[in-house]
């Protein structure tokens, strides 16, 4: 397996890939240099060296804090962009079907936009990289991701085409579900794909067992059952829920198989992979919308009746969403990107409340809350329990000196009163 300095898996929808950023590695090197300098100066035993090392430590801490604040601010902007692009594409697709009832044609059209990934990446490479390469050189270098022989016909049909098929199925089933049920239910149920990813990775990839994620998966399944019960098991709602759960399952299968077959990829390799998926969709799947048109399954009178503005809007928002999800972690934390996805559920609920007749009964609200809670529980890191223990230990140690100072002050008169007032005012703040 090749070593990469920064890796990302090009996954759809609810993915939050983890990668090692060059910026973070640089910070670690700065910390190591500071610690090494401190040890050397301590060995010399000079007071001036100690003051210099303390100033360097302070400068390093300020720099690290500044980087973290910048990532948090970028994260807030990323949450808003991910939420608006995902909710906007869902709502606009719902409106598109009122004028152009062709879910597969819309899927084909939106997937074809993925071919723009690598050209946009190459433009960014020219702007940022000090070692500029020609498009052919960059293409060949990124093709090493598929193996020593690069992108051969065998690699294409065994390692690329299956993922393109899963990509199309995920989006097509999602759009079909939008024709049956409201956008709030669709966006909430699709969040279950993160629970399916955990279950599949636990079974197939032998990932670490975590009790909290098992509970989250159970909550997701319970939310699906309650969502079905909310409409009284009517045929249209059952079909719609089945379609969106199948879409979430295809998305989870895509992610787990990508991790198992291809592993991880650099940003350029991910962009190339998605561009190949989009280009192959445009070339090899174009005959399907034509067949659906002539068989009148997805028929429209004339090209003038096609709402091109809606089609381009849906495709553009989905493309922006995939760019943010797959490459936004270069500037912020993956958890914040995933948070933008779950926040699209209340946004869709507010839009549905004012634009269509939706019955927000108690069962539906509980189901949506349970699914969102399960999604948030799946965002917890693997060592979340150890972090809580360490935090409680630090808080306990912080309280111990205050109690010790109060007991020591009890031996004196005026000092006891002054210290008590000080400690009380500090506690109040």
Automatic annotation (TrEMBL):
Domain EamA per the UniProt entry, residue ranges: 73-228
SUPFAM superfamilies per UniProt: Multidrug resistance efflux transporter EmrE
UniProt KW keywords: Membrane, Transmembrane, Transmembrane helix
One matching Pfam family: EamA
Spans through the membrane: 72-93, 105-123, 156-174, 186-205, 212-230, 236-258, 270-294, 306-324, 331-351, 363-380
Region (Disordered): 33-52
Compositionally biased intervals (Polar residues): 35-44
GO cellular component entries: membrane
PANTHER family reported in the protein's UniProt record: SOLUTE CARRIER FAMILY 35 MEMBER F3 (PTHR19346:SF3), SUGAR PHOSPHATE TRANSPORTER DOMAIN-CONTAINING PROTEIN (PTHR19346)
Entry protein name: Solute carrier family 35 member F3
Species of origin: Labrus bergylta
Upper lineage: Eukaryota, Metazoa, Chordata, Craniata, Vertebrata
Annotated gene: SLC35F3
């Amino acid at each position: 397996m090749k070593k990469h300095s920064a890796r990302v898996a090009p996954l759809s929808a609810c993915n939050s890939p983890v990668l090692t950023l060059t910026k973070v590695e640089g910070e670690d090197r700065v910390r190591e240099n500071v610690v090494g300098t401190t040890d050397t100066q301590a060995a010399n035993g000079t007071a001036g060296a100690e003051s210099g090392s303390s100033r360097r430590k302070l400068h390093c801490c300020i720099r690290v804090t500044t980087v973290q604040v910048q990532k948090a601010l970028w994260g807030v902007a990323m949450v808003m962009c991910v939420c608006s692009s995902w909710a906007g594409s869902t709502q606009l697709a719902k409106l598109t079907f009122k004028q152009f009832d062709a879910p597969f044609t819309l899927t084909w059209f939106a997937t074809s936009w993925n071919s723009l990934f690598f050209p946009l990446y190459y433009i960014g490479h020219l702007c940022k990289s000090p070692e500029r390469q020609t498009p052919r050189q960059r293409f060949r270098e990124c093709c090493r991701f598929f193996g020593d022989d690069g992108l051969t016909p065998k690699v294409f049909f065994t390692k690329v085409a299956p993922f393109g098929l899963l990509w199309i199925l995920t989006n097509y089933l999602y759009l079909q579900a939008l024709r049956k049920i409201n956008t709030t239910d669709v966006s909430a149920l699709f969040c279950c794909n993160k629970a399916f990813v955990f279950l599949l990775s636990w079974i197939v990839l032998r990932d670490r067992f975590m009790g909290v994620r098992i509970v989250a998966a159970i909550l997701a399944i319970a939310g699906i059952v309650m969502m079905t019960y909310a409409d009284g098991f009517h045929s249209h709602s059952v079909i719609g829920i089945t379609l969106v759960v199948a879409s979430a399952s295809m998305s989870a299968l895509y992610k787990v198989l990508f991790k198992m077959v291809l592993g991880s990829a650099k940003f350029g390799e991910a962009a190339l992979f998605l561009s190949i998926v989009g280009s192959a969709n445009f070339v090899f799947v174009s005959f399907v919308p034509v067949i659906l048109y002539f068989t009148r399954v997805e028929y429209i009178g004339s090209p003038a009746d096609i709402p091109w503005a809606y089609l381009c809007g849906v495709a553009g928002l989905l493309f922006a969403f995939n760019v943010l999800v797959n490459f936004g972690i270069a500037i912020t934390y993956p958890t914040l990107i995933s948070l933008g996805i779950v926040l699209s559920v209340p946004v869709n609920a507010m839009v549905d409340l004012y634009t269509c007749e939706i019955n927000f009964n108690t069962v539906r609200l509980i189901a949506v809350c349970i699914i969102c809670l399960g999604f948030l529980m799946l965002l917890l890191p693997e060592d979340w329990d150890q972090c809580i223990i360490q935090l409680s230990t630090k808080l306990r140690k912080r309280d111990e000196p205050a109690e010790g100072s109060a007991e020591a002050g009890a031996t004196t008169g005026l000092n006891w009163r002054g210290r008590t007032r000080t400690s009380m005012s500090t506690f109040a703040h």
